[in-house]
Amino acid sequence: MKPHMSLQEEKLFWDAIDQSNHNKDAHWSDYDIDQHLQDLVQYLSQLDKQQLIIFEKTLQLKLSQLYSAEIAELSTILESEFTEKDGIFNFDAYLSDDGFIYFRCWLILKGKDFFDDIQEDIQNFVSRKYSFDIGDTWAEGLLYVADEAYSVHYENEEESEIRDAVYLQHPEHHYDFAAGKIERDLLNGVELQARYPKLVKAICELRNK
Question: 159 CB contacts (<8 Å, ≥6 apart)?
Answer without folding.
Answer: 144, 147, 148, 151
